Model the fold of this input.
Amino acid sequence: MIHPQVKPVPTRYRNPLSKFKVRRSKACQSCLTCVEVCPHGVHWAASGKPQFPREHLCHGFACQGQDYYCVDRCPNGALSVLLNPVYELLGDRRWTADLILSTWHMAETGRPPTNGLEYKIGDSGGGFDRIEFVFPEGGGLKVDPVGVSTAISLNRRNDGRPRLEIPIPVYGGGMSYGSVSLATMLSRIQAFAAWGSYCSTGEGGFPDELITYSDHIITQVATGLFGVREETIQRVPIVEFKYAQGAKPGLGGHLLGDKVTASVARMREAVAGSALFSPFPFHSVYSVEDHKKHIDWIKQINPRALVSVKVSTPTDVDMVAIGSYYAGAHIIHLDGSYGGTGAAPDIAKKNIAMPIEYAIPKVHRFLVEEGVRDEMTLIVSGGLRTAYDAAKAIALGADGVVTGTADMVALECVRCHNCESGRGCPRGIATTDPQLSTMIDRTWGTQRIINLFSAWREQLADILARLGLSSVTELVGRTDCLRHLDYENDLHG
Amino acid sequence: MPKKYHLETSPTPARHLAPGPSSILDWEEGCRKCHRCVRWQCPYGVYLHRDVDPFSLADTADSLCKHCFQCVQSCPMRLVSQAVNPEYTRLGDDYWTPDVLSRIYYQAETGLIPVSGAGYGGPFTGPGFDAMWTDMSEIVRPTRDGIHGREYISTAVDLGRKPEFVRIEPGGGWSETDACFVESPLPFILGLPQGRRLSPPVVSALAGAAEEMRAFCLIPYKYLNDLPKFSADFTALHLNREQLDLDPADFRRFPLVQADEADGVEAWVKRLKNSNPGQIVMVRLPFGPGVQERLEPLIQAGADIFHLWADAHGRQPGLDGPDEAKPFLKEMLREIHMTLVDLGLRDRVTLLVSGGLALAEHTAKAIVCGADAVVLDLALWAALECRLCPDCLDRRVCPVELETVPLDWAVRRLKNLMGAWRNQLLEVLGAMGLREIRRLRGEVGRAMFFEQLEEESFAPIFGWRKGQSLK
Done:
């Protein structure tokens, strides 16, 4: 497959947020020395006058001591560089300011940043943030990254249903119409379609605007059964059963009344302005047998569909996974406890169920021991932020990953956590407010997400090439390629 | 159908402006006076409601701002910026962080549970309670009927000595073994923090809130005469060491009486039991090495409840050094719980814990580790806007004027916090598939511990954890 083209897509705001601030004082004589010396394109001029510096391109203090350091080269001492105070307010321990800024950079340029931003790990102090790859001695590329395959198959059961290969081991997680705007939904779906991958509708129905992309849509059947109809099940290649969501395991969904606008209500066959609950659990499922009945029902209605089962990560997640195998699912999708949400009680987000890093090796190992690993596609999500997180998840035992928050960040989400309040997202992403949702142009959004995954693919191919692997499928379960910084990493010692 | 417990909450605004995480910096110099200034475009209207707080002289915009940075990113002259607010970072301490306190203020003000969008943003794990997660049950959930069944989950606990078995009389009748207990609809007892100034208005508020919630509060003996009105029915009287000689007959009207561990406390317990047979006797002990040996003799003397206390950070009291070096409540509590189980005495007594309980989840986790219920202290103070100044006892002026809290306002703030916490307990109980909190006690099977998860998932991959290779 030909990968979609990267096109530069700048921020939709006038002033990009940046790690550094470049100040120009009144002493500036417009000599334009800074424009000449800066190799990063921070300084620029129009009509002979220096303009506001492009601070997001600045390498900051890393330039100190170099002969192109604008602060030292300015003959009038008019320039100064400092850490942007806003940078210190941006992000959190999981999604650090660096991760947000570098994701924006990738969405803008399609390449990982080169200005010193940490784009591989966050600052959570555990899990992925303490695990790193061990590359073979000598470094460098062991195989040519151009020939490396990042494709995976979503159906490994040989049951006569389509194999559905995706060229990147990533598809889009469920974000419902209602929790996000139609423009956001379409941006994601169009981007995943351009990549030849899939994107889930979440539990909020299947707006008509999506029908064009049906071949790349996963439709969700969740406990509230909002917007689930026979025809929506029949028009898609993958149907996802959502048992639980990592951010709020065991609690069900909750769309606050403010976000239930007339169009959302119509889609969900509900009343505008009244909060909507998806109950927990499926009241028709109290055993693996009940679960199989559900899957059989979908398979009967749509003979070409694959069935994915999305669950969160309780202690017995391995038993749930094997149950799904025997019930006939093609994909078992684990959503870890630090995963995204449009609204969840903070107590649930922090405390209920285990982080995905623990669940992956546990389930992978169990499926191997049970002799069914080769027939299942193990997909994971819940707090995966970077291409490196995705690669580590695969090395721990997953086949591929699902993203959600990373796509939102590509659309310039700042993780202010206010998706749920009042009119919804102030940046127009997770909102159905008629005014706020015009802030996203879907062509802009689509290309931003295409670019992000282009940068991810490049990094994945690079990791594989450095490990000497020619396909991402060879990385699955290769825990010997990983090291945990808090461990001795010596199994024989 | 039995009547369900309901805790009424009502919005109760703060009396003092609490600092927000950031300060807005907007300069006038160089301003072009655009026709549509970015500040008036704020989706939350922060700049329209902006004022100077007359008490703290702080900019109210700093507390209203929700950090979407649109103004910062849109001003054509780049004149709007934001920075970390030092007033905010100075709130509380390492354990009672600005974030923890802000959450309490929010809950006490609104009675709502904190809900937010986007995933958890905190550290992967942490010391103390942050090194455990509660479990959920994925598919098979016979105990609960979805979100609408939440009102069927009980948070009631028994305080005191419950009947252990039923005795069949020779004549065919039956009787229970001696028991004395009360039921509290909440697993929270309203207590008093150590090292903080107490005042009659605050103690009155605790008593008032306890009565309205039909829960219990601890009232020190010396305040009895200062309280304008309170109901003895919801009071646990606290006696200090000097007050053990008082005549027990004088406080028969209180369902519970607590005394501190001291020499001769067993004799006091016996005397009280003889004088007031139906009264529930609590002994408060600090967590520490000697506690294990004290449990059995105190039970023999007649103690019904142990109230084990840790310091304000949930650590063993009386030790020097950094917090990380001191034993934490959850491990100490699990040990005591198991000791009582091994002695066959666990159901003879009620275990209460206090210290370091700052979030609703801490209650659930303490109960998982073996407590029947918790005694709250600093969290209640924070509900009344306490900023946790480190020098509370030496300070002349309380920045939030705790000594003059209006009774009605304070009662509502306390009820709001307890209501929000109770609702959060319902969330985790629901996720666990438990229908009552009594069944959560000591249920470590419904929790996952950091050490256990690391060992199960990571040890087979990465070997020994650093520093633990000899274990």
Q: What stands out?
A: The mean pLDDT of chain A is 94. Residues 442-467 of chain A form the longest helix (26 residues).
